[in-house]
Structure formats: structure tokens, C-alpha cells
Amino acid sequence: MPSSVDSDSAADRLRRIEAVTDTTLAHLDAAQLLNELLVRVRDLLAADTATVLLLDRSGQQLIASAASGIEEEVRQGVRIAVGEGFAGHIAATRQPLMIQQVGPTTVVNPLLWEKGITSLAGVPLLAGGELIGVLHIGTLAPRPFTEQDVQLLQVVGDRLALATHSRLSRAERAAASALQRNLLPTRLPHVPGLELSARYAPGEAGGVGGDWYDVFTLPSGWLCVAMGDVVGRGLPAATVMSRLRTTVRSYALDSADPGEVLSKVDQHVRHFEPQTMSTIAYAMWEPSLDRMHLSLAGHLAPVLIVPGEPASVLDVPVDPPVGVGSTPVRRRVATIDVPAGSTVLFYTDGLVERRHRTLDDGLRLLRESARAGSTELLCSTVMSRLVGADPTDDDIAVLAVRRQDTGELGAITLVFPAVPEVLADIRATLRRWLPSVGTSPDDIADLLVVIGEAGSNVIEHAYGPAGGELTVALRSHGRDVFATISDSGRWRPPRGTHRGRGTQLMEQLTDELRVEHGPDGTTVHIRRRLTGGE
After folding, report:
1. What distance in Å separates the CA atoms of residue 224 and residue 214, rounded to the nearest whole number?
2. Is residue 534 part of a domain?
């Protein structure tokens, strides 16, 4: 039977446990909390060292994350495989362990015996039944740890695990949310001839997921739209989503075939992300915008909304998601005509699949809710009708792409950095906008030369090494196209001889050419009478 001295000592220790996770530590982040707690653990249990090793995402390695008295463990990035050595055995069995002999036969971390530690006691860190790591203490002098010591250490470990898990979960959710916010386009690109709007709503169960969308143009003038849904939640899903988005962009530069792009993405996932599965819808618009080429990797088909017709889910083939199966598949591509005024609506399954609604009912409600017109109004209506005030268990992404009517495209203004690389972007923009105002192939070819020459002059003459901006504004009126190319620089004299031939060519290809130099920059005014239809 324990003595009163022993009882008093135990009671004092139990009171001191309360100090391990008291309210004064509430303001600390996970790293600061661990460091402070380990100092208190050493004092509580009269130990020379205390270490926390946290389980990594693979569940196969323990990583030294905080240490007191043996800080080298963290600084040197000590890793212990689950099942190996002292800490690895505790993680594998989820049971406390004490040893009185520290050496190569009992531990795998040489720092422990090099520091002269002779006795170790360790416990698993469990939060909600989930192993998050291992806590162990050590002494330089031999010490036979008692059952009471281990019980106290386990109580401390439980409280430490709960506080740490809570902070790590909050930090992970914040990191995942920040990563997703940074990767989802804050502003959709301005594409002449198109109106674009999007919505993203994070799920309220289990943190941020892997839903994403992307819109970008290629140097060839093609427009690309991608939407995907990575299986999983939290920071791992958001991290994979970020890599997948970059992978799609990279392969898009090399191919004008959506099926080939998704095949390469699938191959990439199988090799570099073998535990990943994701659905992806990937579409490419021709520069004229009148046709879309679409490939689906397990993703729900978009909705096509043509003015005057009921909205319909596109009847196109759906291939397996990327990362599924043991062998690559030949991915199919559907070509869809997109009449002027029509909208293509992309979405993830969180929009149509709900606990109280079947997929078929969700798709029916989506078709009934989708109407031609403003993409902003379309996104708002769809989210209102299909989501409303109900909690969203899954993430939801919606992206609407509408091909504008010719009457809406009377004028555009674009601002580019004054660098040579933007000339390709300017040409791609002109190839999309000019056909919408009735230009013939000859008109387009001539205006590409004229506006390209004017842009080149700005890049070469308007600015010094600091650079500046180039503004291109276009409008149509009747049978004329008017263009202005302006800068805010101070022009330098032409270098070399026989210059000015570009200006002569511009005069030959336009009906009016006027250059205005002023203290605030230079503006080139161009008017071209259209030959299309004559």
C-alpha cells in the first residue's frame, strides 16, 4: 500500500498535469505549443530529454517535430520508420514502452546513445483513436521508470495529442484553403467574344476538397477550359489539385487534342501520383469560338444552353478518371458546335449530387434552371436553385462560358506589357475578335500585319529597360474597323538606316493611318474598310 508521501507526490504530479495544457497556451501555434509542452513534461517527470515525433502523411515515418534537451533531433530531421527501433515499436503497437539500455540494439537513432541517454519511456499520441505520433522522455542516469511514471506520461501524452491535433487540423485546413484560393483564378481571363463567370463553394464537411477549374489561352489562339475533382479532402487533396492543374497546363502547350492531353495527364498521375484519382473535363475552343473539342475523364458532361432551346446535358462519351485502372485507355474527343449566344456550363458533382436528391433529379433541376443570357445571372440562378440554404457536404465548382452575339462585340480594349512575347497574344486576340464583326480573311491578314507592326514599334521605341504598357483598342462601326495602339512612353529615334518601311506598309494596308506623339505617349489611329461580303 503506498505511503502518504507517495500519495502526496502523486497528487502533486496530477495537479501539475493540469499545467501542461492550461489556458495560457491557447494562443500558441502547433510548433510553439509542442516546444512549451515538452519543457513542462521534462519538469513534471524529472527527465533530461523529451521528444515528440509526428507521423507523416504516408503513415510510414515518424518525424522529430519538437525536442527539449535533445534539440538536434529536430535540427537534423530525424526520421524513424514505423515498426523500427524504440519509437517505431511504440507507433506500431500503440502501446507504452520502457527500456533501461539505450544502444544500437534497442534504438535506431544514434543521437540518443551519443548524448548519453540510458533510460527511455515512451507512449503513443492518440487523438480520437488516430495515431498522430510518439512522445518519449529520457534520462542520463539509469532510472527504472515505474508504472505510475508511464501512466502520468500517457495522461500527458493524451492531452498533448488532443491539443496538437486540434492545432494541426486548423493549420492544415487554413493551408488547404489558402492553397485553393491562390490556385483558383481570382479573375477569369478577358477573352474577346466570350463572357465567363464562375462560382466556388467549399464543402462544410471535412474541410477543403480537390475541386478546381482553370481557363487559359494558348499562343495558337485556342482557348482551354479545365475542371476537375480530386478524390479526397484537406491539404493532401488541395496539394494534388495544384500539381494536377499545372500538369494540364504543361501538356496543353504541346497538343491541340484534348484526348491526348488527358492521356498524358493520366500517364503522369500513374507514375508520379499513384494513389491519386481525379475526374477532369477538358475542352478546347477553336480561335473562331464556333466549335469546342471536349474530352471527359470520368467527369459529368457539361450543359449546353442555346437561345430559344431547352438546356441539355451534352451527349458525349465519358472515359475513366485519370489514375484509374492498370492500363492506359484511348481517350475520346467530341466536337460540339457552339452557336453565337450559346453557353456551355461546367460543374462538379457537388452541385447535382446531394444527400436528399438523386443524380438524375439533380441533372433535371440543373437543366430546368439553366437559361440563356448573362453568365453571372446563370451562375447565381443555378447556385440558388440547386444549393439554396442547404449545407454543402461536398465542394462545388461552376463555370459558365458564353459565346457572345456579334452585336455585343462592337468594342474591346486590352492592355499588355510592352514585351515581344505579347505579340502572339495580340494576334490570337485579333483572330478571335475580327471574325465576329464581319471581316474577310484578307481583312484579318492585313489588320494582323498593321496592328502587329504598330505594337512592335511601341515595344522597340516607346520604353527603356524599365518597360511599360501597350494598349490595343478596337471597335467596329458599319463597314469600318477602327483600332488604336497607344503607349505612355517617350519614343527613341529609330536605330539604323532604311527605317520607316513598316509605316509605308501600314499605310498601304489601311484606309487611314494617323500617328499622334505627345508628352503622355504616342497613339496610332487606324481605320480599315472591310471587304468581307463584297
Report:
1. 8
2. no
Domain boundary among 127, 152, 176: 176
432 and 362 housed in the same domain: no
Chain centroid to Cα 304, Å, comes to 26
In whole angstroms, give the CA distance from residue 294 to residue 145: 67
**Virtual torsion, Cα 374, 182, 178, 321, nearest 10 deg:** 80
Query: What is the number of domains present in the chain?
Result: 3
Q: Are residues 19 and 40 in the same domain?
A: yes
pTM: predicted TM-score of the whole model, two decimal places = 0.64
CA gyration radius, the chain: 32
- Reported as a single tens digit per residue, the pLDDT across 521-534 is 999 999 999 886 44
Per-residue confidence (pLDDT) for residue 454, from 0 to 100: 92
Indicate if 342 and 357 belong to the same structural domain: yes
pLDDT at res. 15 = 56
408: DSSP letter: G
Q: Which structural domain, as residue segments, surrounds residue 386?
A: 184-405
Q: What digits encode the pLDDT tens for the residues 187-239? A: 788 787 789 999 988 775 555 567 889 999 887 778 999 999 988 766 667 77
Helix axes 30-45, 147-183, angle to 10 degrees: 170
Q: Average pLDDT, stretch 468-492?
A: 88
Last residue of a domain, one of 129, 159, 176: 176
